[in-house]
Amino acid sequence: MAHTINVDIVSAEGQIFSGEAAMVFVPATQGEIGIAPRHAPLLTSLKPGEVRVQLASGEEQLFYVGGGALEIQPNRVVVLADTAARARDLDEAKAAEAKARAEAALSDRSDTIDVAEAQLELARAVAQLRAIERLRKIKS
Q1: Co-location of 16 and 72 in the same domain
Q2: Is 4:20 a contact under the CB 8 Å cutoff?
Q3: Potential cystine with 84: which of 11, 33, 41, 140 (Cβ 3.0-4.6 Å)?
Q4: Are the CB atoms for 57 and 83 separated by under 8 Å?
Q5: Considering the chain, what percentage of its residues have pLDDT values greater than 90?
Q6: d(CA 106, CA 108)
Q7: Would you say the C-alpha torsion 132, 101, 80, 32 has a positive or negative sign?
């Protein structure tokens, strides 16, 4: 296992994934980061999006994170997510409903809404829908 890196994805709900990977892709606030074994140490924050874990076998596992923090060490990656789920466990109807609700809140400025909160809800819903769509492409 010389060419793998240990990956842990955890949230307040518990551990979502723990295992060895050949490559990991995460949605950092400044852009997507690709992490290979022996990556330079790094601490950064995450935005809502998908985490892709490429196993040594070539299989790719997808996860949704609602934001959080990332710690990279040469032999270990830790994703500390605000919320996290396996892409296969996401509910497309709920994500689409949340997206529509956030878009409506942003377009209707007559309410006293918290714009930042609505934008975050929209970003999370869009990230969930993207993870679901990518999972569909992998399966087909």
Answers
A1: yes
A2: yes
A3: 11
A4: no
A5: 50
A6: 6
A7: positive
CB atoms under 10 Å from CB of 118, counted, come to 19
* 93 contacts: CB under 8 Å, gap ≥ 6: none
Tell me the pTM.
Answer: 0.75
Would you place residue 1 in the very low, low, confident or very high pLDDT band (cuts 50, 70, 90)? very low
Residues 6+ apart with CB under 8 A from 32: 25, 26, 49
Paired sense of beta strands 5-11 and 76-81, if any: parallel
Cα separation, 87 vs 62, whole angstroms: 5
Same domain for 55 and 35: yes
The predicted pLDDT at position 111 comes to 57
Q: Are 83 and 104 contained in the same domain?
A: no
Range of the domain at 135: 91-139
Q: What is the DSSP letter of 82?
A: S
Here the tokens at position 137 are 């492409």
pLDDT digits (tens, 9 = 90+) for 53-66: 999 898 999 999 98
Report the C-alpha gap between 52 and 59 in whole angstroms. Answer: 10
Which amino acid is located at 105 in the chain? A
